[in-house]
Every structure is written in C-alpha cells, then in structure tokens.
Specification:
The chain is an alpha/beta fold and 272 residues long. The chain has 7 helices and 15 strands. A 5-stranded parallel β-sheet has the order 2-1-3-4-5, with helices on both faces.
C-alpha cells in the first residue's frame, strides 16, 4: 500500500521566496503542502491547526521568529518531541548551531535548488516514519504490559518473551528465544538472529533487565549472549577470551567479565 503523502507547512515573510519554495516543494513526489504562512504567529497557529508533519520555516520573520516557532512546536525541553519535523530555510548561516540545538532535521541556506529541497524532505520523511514506528512500538509494548498485569500466571517470571522492532515503518515481532546475542551501539542495540540483525533504539542495560538471567548472560559491557548459543570460550590473540557461538559469531568477553563467565559456564558444564 502506498504510504500517505508527507504533509508540509511553508513559512516565509517574503512573497517571492514563499512562492519559489512552494514550487520547489511541489516538485517532490508524495509531498502535500497543507498551509503557508507569512509571519511567525501565523506559522505557529497553522502548524497546530493542520498538524503538519514537516514545517519549512524562515528564521527572520515578523512577530515570532522561526527559532521561537520551532521551540514552541517542540514542546517541553525535557519531554518527548511530539511536534512537526522542522527544516529551516534562511539566508543567514549564523543560526545553524541554534537550529540544530532545536533538533532541526536540515538547514537550507538561500539560495537553494530543487535537489537540495528534495534531500531535506527525504531526511524529514525518514524522521517522521521513525517517530511513527517508535510510537506504534510503544503502544504495542503498553498493550503487552497491560496483558501481563492482567494475566501474571501466563508470564514466566515477568521477563520479556518477545520484542517489537521497527521494520520499514511498521513493527515486527521478534521472539526472545530466537536471539543469539545482543550488541550495544551507542544509543541503540543490535539484535543478532542467525545471519540477520536488527537495530533497535534501546540501551543494553535496560534490555538485559527485561531478559531472563537464566537464559542471557552479559559477557562484555557491550555484549550479551544467549547461554545455550555458546559453543566454546576461546582465547583471543593478544590475550583475553571470546565466546564462540553455534552460529559462528565471536563476540568478545570483557576482561572484567572473564572470571565470572568462566565460572558460570564451568558450573553449567558440571551440572550437565
């Protein structure tokens, strides 16, 4: 099914600049201009009225300037960013740092051309889709939590048995038992399942707290493995250990974790 057109509001106090911007944006596929504005107060009001997904706004305008409009639309400083994605379009480069502090997705420096506008809108579209997917996944998690609270007898120990991940703007269910290992990547975690991997916005600390410790073990500050996937603890060139998984993956074992990991798998083998 074709995704709906990206809804855009344009704001510029110069009529010629606004008309040119309208023409350039209209040339981009799957984009719909829902409103225009010629000053900051009008831009803020129309952005709220139309719920536009993207606002392309000049910075120097009568009334509220573009930065003030973007700040008002972004919501509370410490809260989630629920407002539209913002692209600044201006003749002044000195506002760039301030713009990106407000999480603007792009900064169009006048005069700009059609390819540059298309590039900015492509970035905005990607951010809108990521935000929508994250919201849907959050809603699914809330539903799962409610079901667990209503039926605690059906949940073994209260640990996660499935994860919902972003998949091309949708959401995909991933069974925890299918995970081989988990790798931290800054503000994300990479979930390794066989030859595939999935990047999820989460922290490894938060995720491991939701997984059954009888099944998962942290072997490095940036790596967690499913215990029954570990086939061997092998020496690493230059010292240290690596966990050799049944899939062939070789996540490293951190020096601070090595003794505990050795002891854990020694106890497991003795019980076997």
């Amino acid at each position: 099914m074709t995704p709906p057109a990206l809804t855009v509001l344009l704001a510029d106090d110069e009529p010629l600049a606004l008309r040119r911007l309208q023409r350039l944006v209209s040339e981009v596929e799957d984009v719909r201009i829902v409103a225009t504005a010629t000053d900051g107060d009008q831009a803020l009001a129309r952005a709220r009225e139309t719920a536009a997904e993207v606002v392309i706004i000049d910075i120097k305008m009568p009334g509220l300037d573009g930065v003030s409009v973007a700040r008002a639309l972004a919501g509370p400083p410490n809260g989630p960013r629920e407002g539209p994605v913002v692209i600044f379009a201006t003749a002044f480069d000195r506002y760039a740092i301030q713009a990106f502090d407000l999480a603007a997705v792009d900064y169009l420096l006048k005069p700009f051309d059609a390819p540059r506008v298309a590039e900015a809108l492509a970035r905005a579209r990607a951010q809108v889709r990521a935000r929508d997917a994250e919201q849907r996944i959050g809603e699914l998690r809330a539903i799962v939590q409610d079901l667990r609270a209503e039926h605690p007898e059906a949940v073994g120990g209260g640990f996660e048995t499935e994860l919902w991940i972003d998949n091309r703007g949708g959401a995909q269910r991933l069974l925890v038992r299918d995970l081989d290992w988990i790798e931290a990547e800054r503000d994300y975690v990479r979930l390794h399942v066989g030859e595939r991997s999935y990047l999820v916005r989460d922290s490894i600390r938060s995720l491991i707290e939701r997984l059954d410790p009888a099944c998962f073990v942290r072997i490095h500050r940036s790596a967690v493995v499913q215990r029954d996937r570990v086939a061997q603890l092998a020496p690493r060139p230059g010292g240290g250990l690596t966990a050799v998984l049944s899939t062939g993956a070789r996540p490293p074992i951190g020096r601070s974790h090595a003794a505990a990991v050795r002891q854990l798998f020694r106890r497991t083998s003795n019980r076997a």
